[in-house]
Amino acid sequence: TMTTSDNTAANIILSAVGGPKGVTDFLRQIGDKETRLDRIEPDLNEGKLGDLRDTTTPKAIASTLNKFLFGSALSEMNQKKLESWMVNNQVTGNLLRSVLPAGWNIADRSGAGGFGARSITAVVWSEHQAPI
Question: Taking every annotated instance into account, which residue ranges of this chain make up the domain Beta-lactamase class A catalytic (predicted)?
């Protein structure tokens, strides 16, 4: 499912959108010049020093996530679906949720790779604070 880590499902979705190249091409179309997807699961989780495959930068992924959730890169229906998947994400657990102040919400997605690498892409907001 989209709220748990399911590599087989991810590869089926990747195939439906043109594979890693289809994802990277779409990212270029919406202005993300950094993020790239080169391999499928689980191979994309293996990284070596200097290997640029399957990488992004913090600035690029934050900008792309902003376009997905609040911009025009996705339809309103797909924005809501993505937000729901990220709010209900079960992979990250309490990694960030446990330290959020009361009244704050989080929508996140995480990943892990070799050498203890961990990534979390998230949006946080409260009733009185716009998403960051």
Answer: 2-128
